[in-house]
Amino acid sequence: MTPRLAPAIALLASLLAAIGTALAAAPAPASASIWRVPAPHTAIDPLLHLTEYENRVAFKINQHRKAAGLAKVRYFGSCIDGYAERWSRHLALTGAFEHRDQMKILNGCDLTWVGETLVRGTGITPGDVVKAWLHSPEHRAVIMKPRANRAGIGVRIDPQGRFVGVLNFGDVN
Signal peptide location in the record (predicted)? Predict the structure, then answer.
């Protein structure tokens, strides 16, 4: 990371944390919405735009699922995505690196199964993240779970300039 980029990333992380805190205090909507995962936009640098980073991780995961004959996780539900976003913010702000109680997501989003994968590091591309997860048997089991049909991804940058990512998968009957 260049010395000029570090202050910009720190400012971005601070702004995202402030926005996230404000959003976390807002009441949850009465109903959840879902949306399609867009194909990555090649002109945007995912290392500088966290939403693009998340979209590229989702796209890569679906490429691997499709290649394995599994259904794509086409819809990223707002409930499970909210949990991923809030947990990535928590991990980035506290420096912790641990899984949370999955029962909170299971019950909070009315799901029948959930799984979580984490990542933290510097200069890691979305492809690097997915490759690392797929090379770990425990993480691969979550990503390649045939019944997975909902997902949420949260990525933040911690004060040390590291990406902190959370992927939550689940299913709804």
Answer: 1-24
